[in-house]
C-alpha cells in the first residue's frame, strides 16, 4: 500500500520536526543563538556550512539578517517545545519561567525582523531584500527535509504527536536541555547528573517532566501585530539603509573585540560590542586616582566582563536578548582609590560578568 503525502502534510511535518536552537550554554558550539548548531544537528550537516550561507546572504543581497532572525523566532531551545514566535501568542501567566523568557525575546525579534526585512534600492525604489533571503531559507529547509525527513532520536522535545526518528543513533551527549526542562526522549546516554549513569540497565528510567500547565484561551494579538507592522514599515527602509551602510563602512564589524586596560589612562568610558564577541578584562587595573563611570554595551554576540580585585566597584546590569549572568551590587568597597561604576547592558547574545572568587558582593 502506497501512502501519498500532500504538500500540506509535508509542511506540517517540517514544522513539527523543525530543529531546536542549541546555544553555547547548552553545549552547542554556537556564536550567537545556536540557530546554525541546531540546523546542523537536526539535518546532520556541518553547522559551519550553515553559518557561511547566512553570512554570504548577509553581504550579497543584505537579507541574511532577516532570515536568521526569522529562524531564531521559529526554533525553540533544545529541550523546549515553545519557540519565541509561539510564546508571544500565549498568555504570559500560562507560561513557565523558561517560556516567559522566550516570550520577551520573541517580541524583540519580531520588531528587529520587521525593521530588517526591507531596504532601498540604488534607484530609490523600495524592495525587500529580506524577502529573497527568507525565500531561499524556506527553499533550503524544504530540500534538507526531503534529504533527512526524520530527526535524530533525543533531539526534539516531547510533543503531542511524536515523530519517527532516525534508525541510526546520533551522539547528543554534549547537549543539555534548557534550564527547567527535561531531556528529550530517546537519548542513549544518561544525563551527567544522573547517579545511575554508570549503570546501563538504568538508562531507560523516565526523565522528570514539567507539571501540567492550565489550558487557557489564546489572546487575540495578531491585530496588534498588524498595526505594529504598518507603523514599523515606514521606518524600516531608513533603518536598514543606515544599518547596511554602517556594516560596510565600519571596520570594527564582524570580528571579536577584546579590551584589557592596564592603567587608568587606558580606561574608556564606553565599550561597544558589534557583530562578534566583546570581552572587557579589568583585572589588570591598579587602584584609581579618580572615580569613573564605564558603560559596557553588548552588540550581536556574547559579552564577557571581568571585574577588578583591587578597585571598589558598583555594578548595575540591564538585560538584553540573551542569558545574563550578572549580580548587581557593590564589590570590594574597602579598597583604596576611586570607585568604578560599571554599567553592563546586554545586546543580542549571552552576557557573563565574572567576579574574582575572593571578591564577594557587599550588598
UniProtKB/TrEMBL annotation:
Which chain regions cross the lipid bilayer?
49-71, 104-120, 126-144, 221-248
Instruction: Name the major location.
Output: membrane
Recorded topology in the membrane? Single-pass membrane protein
Q: Where in the cell is it found?
A: Cell membrane
A Pfam family: PspC
Cell membrane as UniProt keyword:
yes
Which residue ranges does the record assign to the Phage shock protein PspC N-terminal domain? 29-77
InterPro entries the UniProt entry points to: Phageshock_PspC_N, PspC
Q: Which GO CC terms are listed, alphabetically?
A: plasma membrane
PANTHER family named among the record's database cross-references: PHAGE SHOCK PROTEIN C
- The name of this protein is Phage shock protein C (PspC) family protein
**Organism whose genome encodes this protein:** Corynebacterium pollutisoli
Amino acid at each position: 500500500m502506497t501512502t501519498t503525502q500532500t504538500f500540506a502534510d509535508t509542511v506540517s511535518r517540517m514544522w513539527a520536526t523543525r530543529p531546536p536552537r542549541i546555544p553555547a550554554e547548552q553545549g552547542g558550539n554556537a556564536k550567537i543563538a545556536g540557530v546554525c548548531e541546531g540546523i546542523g544537528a537536526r539535518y546532520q550537516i556541518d553547522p559551519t556550512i550553515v553559518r557561511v550561507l547566512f553570512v554570504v546572504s548577509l553581504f550579497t543581497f543584505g537579507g541574511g539578517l532577516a532570515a536568521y532572525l526569522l529562524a531564531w523566532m521559529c526554533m525553540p531551545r533544545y529541550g523546549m517545545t515553545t519557540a519565541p514566535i509561539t510564546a508571544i501568542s500565549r498568555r504570559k501567566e500560562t507560561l513557565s519561567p523558561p517560556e516567559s523568557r522566550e516570550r520577551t525575546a520573541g517580541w524583540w525579534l519580531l520588531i528587529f525582523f520587521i525593521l530588517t526585512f526591507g531596504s532601498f534600492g540604488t534607484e530609490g525604489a523600495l524592495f525587500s531584500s529580506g524577502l529573497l533571503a527568507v525565500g531561499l531559507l524556506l527553499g533550503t529547509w524544504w530540500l534538507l527535509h526531503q534529504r533527512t525527513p526524520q530527526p535524530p532520536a533525543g533531539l526534539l522535545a516531547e510533543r503531542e504527536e511524536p515523530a519517527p526518528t532516525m534508525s541510526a543513533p546520533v551522539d547528543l551527549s554534549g547537549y543539555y536541555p534548557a534550564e527547567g526542562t527535561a531531556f528529550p526522549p530517546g537519548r542513549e546516554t544518561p544525563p551527567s547528573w544522573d547517579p545511575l549513569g554508570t549503570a546501563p540497565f538504568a538508562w531507560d528510567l523516565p526523565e522528570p517532566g514539567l507539571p501540567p500547565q492550565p489550558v487557557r484561551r489564546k489572546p487575540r494579538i495578531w491585530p496588534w501585530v498588524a498595526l505594529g507592522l504598518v507603523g514599523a514599515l515606514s521606518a524600516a527602509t531608513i533603518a536598514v539603509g543606515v544599518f547596511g551602510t554602517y556594516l560596510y563602512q565600519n571596520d570594527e564589524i564582524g570580528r571579536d573585540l577584546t579590551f584589557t586596560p592596564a592603567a587608568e589612562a587606558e580606561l574608556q568610558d564606553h565599550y561597544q560590542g558589534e557583530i562578534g564577541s566583546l570581552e572587557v578584562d579589568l583585572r589588570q587595573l591598579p587602584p584609581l586616582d579618580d572615580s569613573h563611570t564605564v558603560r559596557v554595551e553588548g552588540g550581536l554576540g556574547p559579552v564577557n566582563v571581568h571585574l577588578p580585585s583591587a578597585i571598589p566597584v558598583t555594578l548595575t546590569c540591564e538585560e538584553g536578548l540573551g542569558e545574563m549572568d550578572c549580580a548587581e551590587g557593590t564589590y570590594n568597597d574597602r579598597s583604596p582609590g576611586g570607585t568604578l561604576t560599571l554599567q553592563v547592558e546586554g545586546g543580542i547574545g549571552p552576557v557573563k560578568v565574572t567576579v574574582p572568587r575572593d571578591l564577594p558582593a557587599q550588598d
